[in-house]
Write a structure and sequence with these properties.
The protein is 32% helix and 16% strand. The chain has 258 residues and is α/β, with parallel strands linked by helices. The two termini are 18 Å apart.
Length: 258
C-alpha cells in the first residue's frame, strides 16, 4: 500500500549492495515484493556510486534502469546521479573500476547514452534541496553565482547538468566540477561535485551552505540533518546500516532507519 502524499526518498552510495537497496525501497513503499515500482507519484533520488566494491553492481544497475522506466509510466520519478565511480568510467579511467577493461568499456557506452538521454544527471533540486554526489564547495558556489542571477538550488542544478552533459558530449573534463582535491591526491585545494570529501566541504563554508545540500561520497556513521551547515550526508554504507532520507510534500526532511 502506497502513501497518498507525494514524497521524495533519497538513498546514498549503494556500491553493489543489492539486498540493502531492496530492503530500503520496500520499507519506503516504492517497490513491491516482486521488486516492481509501486510508489505511484513519489520520487526516488539515488546519489551515485552504485558500482564497485559490493557483490552486485550490475544487478543494482538493472534494477534502477527498470524502476526508472516504471516510475515514469506511473507518474513517479527515479532520479539517478553520477558518482565518482561512474565518472571515472566515463572519463575512461578504468583502473578505479572492478570490471575488466572490455566490460568497463561497455558500461561506459551505456552510461554515456543515459547521460545524453537525461537519465543520469550531475545534480537535482527539490523543494530547495540541492542533490549532488559529493557536494558543492563555497568556491564552486561563488563561481556559479557569477553566472546566475539567483543561485538557488533549482538554478544551480540546471547549470551543473548543462555543464555536465556538454562535458560528456565533447569528452572535455576541465570544468571545476570535475576537480579532485589535494586530500584525494589531486591538484586542487577543493574538489568538485564528484570528488569532494565532507571535511573539506564543511570547512569551505565558514557560516554554512547558502542552500540546503544533500550528498553522499564520504562515509558517515549515521545520517544526520545538520541545520547549522544546511547539509545532509547520505553515505552510511548499505553493507552495515540501512538508513535513508525522506522529504515530505511540505519539504520537511526526516531520517528513516530500518
Amino acid at each position: 500500500m502506497q502513501k497518498s502524499a507525494r514524497k521524495l526518498i533519497a538513498i546514498g552510495d549503494v556500491h553493489g549492495q543489492f539486498e540493502g537497496l531492496v530492503k530500503i525501497l520496500r520499507h519506503a513503499q516504492l517497490i513491491d515484493e516482486t521488486h516492481h515500482w509501486c510508489g505511484g507519484h513519489n520520487r526516488l533520488v539515488q546519489i551515485g556510486d552504485i558500482l564497485d566494491r559490493g557483490p552486485s553492481s550490475l544487478k543494482v544497475a538493472s534494477l534502477l534502469d527498470r524502476l526508472q522506466a516504471e516510475a515514469e509510466t506511473s507518474g513517479g520519478e527515479v532520479i539517478r546521479l553520477i558518482g565518482n565511480h561512474e565518472l571515472e568510467l566515463l572519463m575512461e579511467n578504468y583502473l578505479i573500476s572492478e570490471f575488466q577493461r572490455e566490460q568497463a568499456m561497455q558500461i561506459r557506452e551505456k552510461l554515456i547514452g543515459q547521460v545524453l538521454a537525461g537519465d543520469l544527471k550531475a545534480a537535482y533540486a527539490y523543494k530547495g534541496f540541492l542533490f549532488t554526489h559529493a557536494g558543492v564547495t563555497h568556491k564552486l558556489f561563488r563561481i556559479f553565482s557569477l553566472q546566475l542571477a539567483e543561485p538557488n538550488a533549482a538554478n544551480l542544478a540546471i547549470l551543473m547538468n548543462l555543464i555536465f552533459q556538454e562535458s560528456i558530449k565533447h569528452a572535455f573534463f576541465k570544468h571545476p566540477i570535475f576537480n579532485i582535491s589535494i586530500s584525494r591526491r589531486g591538484p586542487d585545494r577543493f574538489g568538485g561535485i564528484f570528488w569532494e570529501d565532507l571535511e573539506d566541504l564543511v570547512s569551505s563554508y565558514p557560516q554554512g551552505s547558502p542552500v540546503w545540500q544533500v550528498f553522499g561520497h564520504t562515509p558517515v556513521e549515521t545520517l544526520v540533518i545538520d541545520r547549522v551547515m544546511n547539509m545532509i550526508a547520505l553515505d552510511v554504507g548499505l553493507h552495515r546500516k540501512l538508513q535513508y532520507l525522506e522529504i515530505n510534500d511540505h519539504g520537511i526532511p526526516a531520517v528513516i532507519s530500518l
